[in-house]
Amino acid sequence: MKFKRILLKLSGESLAAGQGHGIDTARLSQYAAQIKEMVDAGVEIGIVIGGGNIFRGLSGASAGFDRVKGDQMGMLATVINSLALNSALEAIGQPSKVLTAIGMFPIGEHYSKWKAIETMEKGGVAIISCGTGNPYFTTDTGSALRAVEIEADVMLKGTRVDGVYTADPEKDPSAEKFDTISYDEVLARGLKVMDLTATALCKENDMPVYVFNMDVPGNLRKALEGEPVGTLVTAR
What we know:
- 40% of the residues lie in helices and 18% in strands.
- The chain has helices at 12-16, 25-40, 57-62, 67-91, 113-121, 139-149, 183-189, 196-204, 219-224; strands at residues 5-10, 44-49, 96-100, 109-110, 125-129, 154-159, 180-182, 209-213, 230-234.
């Protein structure tokens, strides 16, 4: 495998599959199977899942919710998704542990870098929820922070598109895909890979990000084996 330890960022919307909201159990099982396959191959995996399939803080704020409360509701949405993935992994014999950035015992253990690393080194999957535990930060930023903290080799951003393009490929059929791109070019072009805080955090800490389509079965293995199924974003 090209990478030994990864932080995998999963989209909450992807968990909903075609339903648009909630959790699609077939998609959940597909994710769990891909993750277990990689753990069996010797990869240490930490995971952060978004909560957009249940509640998005920014959307709540635009609808009149207090922003802090809206973001806290979004954090709880990530816990629901994390528990669902935890259950799906355990059902196929893959040990995993839900860690929460805010105190939430007995739903999950309070997150620390050392608990996450211990879980991964013992062959378990560390599922890290609640983002950073603070309002005004996205799960992209939470993923970037956790990737740096757990000393991951790369942050894998599983999305519904197969990489970074010059424009939104769902809106512009002439958009061209990058095989590799620097953070500086991402910022200069205004590409929506991650929010600015997450991008800056990864750039400053020399954390590469690999953007790929997690919804295609087998793509996680291909990404970890170095096959060109996505776009690598680097600090240089």
